[in-house]
Write a structure and sequence with these properties.
Elements lengths: L15 H4 L1 E10 L4 E10 L5 E10 L3 E8 L4 E8 L1 H5 L6 E4 L1 E4 L5 H13 L7 E7 L8 E8 L20 E6 H10 L5 H12 L4
Parallel strand pairs: 4-9
Antiparallel strand pairs: 1-2, 2-3, 4-5, 4-7, 5-6, 5-10, 8-9
Length: about 210
């Protein structure tokens, strides 16, 4: 990521007649880095009545992730880095093995993921294949993640990756045999949802 992301959740809501949601009040709770808001609203129930509800939602912007693969070598490129939330929730050293990923900032998803690949892994990639875009934690986080795949050339790596120093990123780049990566999911060595989704997608589509 090159800049602090901007919130992406809509501040102008669709009419209640269309959405079935009457937004009453939005209360900012935190904007230290991203944005945490409290939403007081009424939700239209199947019988036509309106039920008052209150929820909090965390807005960190939208993101993109990608599985880099090489058919000839049957390998994938992943990253390993410390993730505080994982450390706080039972990962002893906080180290997570993941696909390259980052926030969009103001870029289109394809441009953003090419930027993140260069920053995190050092590889240069061209065309990227869109897979799907999904919400990973819709109960509390507004983020929508755009998923991609792309083949990498081991010889086309002008940089070493490792992340952006100004953002205190310390990223280790891993080139892993595809079958070994799948075994790491089965053993619990890989527990990152976006990474598991892309690895299983590659297996389902018999890409490797």
């Amino acid at each position: 990521m090159s800049n602090r992301p901007k919130p992406t959740a809509a501040s102008v809501f669709p009419p209640a007649e269309e959405s079935g949601v009457q937004m009453r009040q939005v209360t900012p709770l935190s904007s230290n880095w991203y944005h945490l808001n409290r939403y007081d609203y009424e939700l239209r129930l199947p019988d036509g009545s309106w039920q008052p509800q209150m929820r909090e939602a965390y807005d960190r912007g939208n993101g993109a992730t990608i599985l880099l693969y090489n058919r000839e070598r049957r390998t994938v490129v992943l990253t390993r880095q410390f993730r505080l939330p994982a450390f706080l929730n039972g990962v002893a050293d906080g180290q997570m093995i993941e696909t390259a990923a980052g926030l969009l900032d103001d870029d289109a998803p394809g441009d953003a993921i090419r930027r993140e690949v260069a920053e995190e892994t050092g590889y240069r990639i061209g065309d990227v294949e869109p897979v799907f875009d999904i919400f990973m934690s819709p109960g509390s986080v507004t983020e929508r993640i755009h998923f991609f795949m792309a083949e990498y050339d081991p010889a086309d790596r002008p940089g070493n990756g490792g992340g952006v120093d100004s953002e205190t990123e310390n990223i280790e780049v891993l080139e892993i045999d595809f079958d070994a990566a799948l075994s790491m999911v089965a053993s619990g060595a890989i527990v990152d949802a976006k990474t598991i989704l892309l690895l299983y997608h590659a297996r389902l589509k018999e890409i490797l």
